[in-house]
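ARCHIVE CARD
Drawer: 12
Card no.: 0347
Subject: one protein chain, sequence and derived structure
Cross-reference: see card 0346
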Amino acid sequence: MRTLRINSTFFTLILLKELNTELLYGFTDNIYILFGIALRNAGLSEQFGTMLQFMRFKGKTALVTGGVRRLGKEIALSLAREGADIILHYFQSRQEADETSDEIRSFGRECRMSSQDFSDVNLTRKWFGNLIGEYGCPDILINSASSYSKDTYRNMSVGRLQDSMNLHVYAPLVLIRMMFEAGRGGSVVNLLDTRVADRDPFHASYHLGKRGLLTITRDLAAEFAPVLRINAVAPGIVLPPEGQGEDWIERLKSTNPLLERGTAQDVSDAVLFLVGAEFTTGQIIFVDGGRHLKGNAYGL
């Protein structure tokens, strides 16, 4: 009986949304989301997984850089589940790109793949210009492409620092600026790291790159408003670095006040919130179990 009632309610909501009137649309959208949360809390989300898609971003296109692996992949899949068509950027991970693209298409969404090395800013500008010319300017930009290099201020090379700045600062800056110049409007979310609030002397070039991305997040949020909303998410202990196992997570999760690890879905939930938050810009959400509260060298 409970399943029958849920089925009836679900299809009633679908019908109301299809009517798409000004009076009903916002109301049914909110009820639809609450209904999905109720299903998840009742342990029924898997039963209705193929049917239950909130479609908050239906009709939108999202470009996700570094979107075929790790957090970028989870964000791309989450956006697709909620109705967005996806442009997947990758560098060398073609097999992962094919697999992620297949998953996205299984949700009934369009997915296009595009490879680009962000180490050359001029080529990055040309690449994004070609994307805009072929597919139109994306409504949503997720800057998640990253490289977690290990070095210190004592041994960091100029080349390594330049690579980090190209990937974490210059490439996002170029994409955001070209999106602004297109004049269409939209939402940008940059992926930071909880340690932008503290020192990280063992990953110096990576840290400087992410600190630079933090700065342009806030500066460009003011500079490019009201055309763009620009925010960021700073994850903490969520995924182990490549080459490390789950023991790395277990060892370090005690470093945050909640004494827990996060999940990739925790991060994507924060990203999707910011994408849809129409009155929010220039904000940083730390998804880190409170880790940024324990050491804050920069007053964030």
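Annotation on reverse: The longest strand covers residues 228-235. The chain has two domains: 1-52, 56-293.
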